[in-house]
Design goal:
Largest sheet: none
Number of helices: 5
InterPro entries: CdiI_2
Organism: Candidatus Methylumidiphilus alinenensis
Shape: globular
Helix content: 55-70%
Pfam families: CdiI_2
Order of helices and strands: HHHHH
Protein name: CdiI immunity protein domain-containing protein
Distance between the termini: 32 Å
């Protein structure tokens, strides 16, 4: 299912955490840094905002709700201990200048 409530996050996840993600890098940091390098700052801000809204909306249920709203080719737990930690790491990296 494609999320319509969080379009920036869905686009980011689909475009950067797909089956060939390792072409860009093997870590959240490498992937996010490349995204920031090739994308306008407004896009990074929009993705981070979607993440913050999603996490606050589903506080304590992020891992369960993620699969209902997003469809990506990789398991976020390959990068972090939980989906929430995965999203937090992405948002924090996006918000870092």
């Amino acid at each position: 299912m494609q999320s319509t409530k969080y379009p920036h996050l869905q686009s980011f996840l689909s475009g950067w955490f797909h089956q060939d993600f390792d072409i860009v890098g093997n870590s959240i940091e490498a992937i996010v840094d490349e995204f920031k390098q090739v994308s306008p700052a407004a896009d990074a801000h929009a993705v981070a905002k979607d993440i913050r809204v999603f996490i606050s909306t589903f506080e304590g249920q992020v891992d369960n709700e993620f699969g209902r709203d997003f469809e990506i080719d990789v398991d976020p737990r390959e990068f972090a201990p939980s989906v929430e930690a995965f999203l937090e790491q992405i948002a924090t990296r996006l918000e870092t200048k």
